[in-house]
Amino acid sequence: QFRALAPMYYRGSAAAIIVYDITKEETFSTLKNWVKELRQHGPPNIVVAIAGNKCDLNDVREVMEKDAKDYADSIHAIFVETSAKNAININELFIEISRRIPSTDTNPPSSGKGFKLRRQPSVTKRSCC
Fold it and tell me: Cα separation of 44 and 46, whole Å?
C-alpha cells in the first residue's frame, strides 16, 4: 500500500535496516525485493543491514541463518539475527552500522574542543509612512 512512498524515506539516507521474520519464509523473499528497490532508487553508498528478527523463536524457524548470511554476504550487507522482544543484538546492529557509515566531516577539529557559536547581527528593516 505504501510502497510508492518508500523512495521518499530512503532518499539521502546513510543506512537502511531491512528486517525479516525468521519464522516466515515469505518475509525473507519480500526482503530481497526491498533490497533490489533500495539498490535501484536509494543512495549509491548506503550501508545496508539485514536483520533476521525473532531469533528467540528458533524452534519455529523457517529461514536458516546460513541462507540469510550467505545472501547478505552476496550483496555486501551487514547481517545479524535479532530479537526485538528480548533485546538481542539490537545495540550490536546499530554499532556495526555506525562503524560502516563513512564520515562526512572533512575537516575535524584538531584540538577536540569543538566549535564556537557566534550570534549573527540582526538586520532590522524599517519602513516609513
Answer: 6
Q: What tens digit of pLDDT does each residue of 106-117 get?
A: 545 544 555 555
Q: Cβ(106)–Cβ(95) under 8 Å? A: no
Instruction: Identify the three-state secondary structure at position 30.
Output: helix
Q: Name the residue range of residue 60's domain.
A: 23-100
Q: How far apart are CA 28 and CA 50, in angstroms?
A: 10
The pLDDT tens digits for 6-32 are: 777 777 889 999 999 999 999 999 999
Taking every pair of Cα atoms in the chain, the longest distance, rounded to a whole number of angstroms, is: 81
Closest CA to 4 of 29, 32, 37: 37
One-letter amino acid for residue 36 of the chain: K
- Residue 70: the pLDDT is 97
Please indicate, yes or no, if residue 50 is contained in any of the structural domains. Answer: yes
Q: Does residue 6 lie within any of the structural domains?
A: no
